[in-house]
């Protein structure tokens, strides 16, 4: 596979549900997980893998990202769906993962919160939350 295709949140959920080897990796920061929430995969018998792509507060790229994927049990055979706030960091993480030997990378389009709406709020227009997919406060 070349490149990291965008997959809608609903299609990502369906893939996670259908494929026992599919994994959701949330690449946001600790602060985002704690204050905004995280996807809830418990009804699928899975847990989201939390590995920051960039480390808060400096936002430097996590130089151990691929190592953390391996430690979390992600393999080259895993279909891995990367999620961030709006889809940019997760795309970069998926590209880096492909380069590190995880070829089956998918970007969850619009991320967890999606773009801002006309009132400047996220989570209402597109993304995981706007698609009413399960999530919880951490």
From TrEMBL:
Q: Which residues form the Rhodanese domain?
A: 18-124
Q: Which SMART domains match?
A: RHOD (SM00450)
- A Pfam short name: Rhodanese
Q: What protein am I looking at?
A: Rhodanese-like domain-containing protein
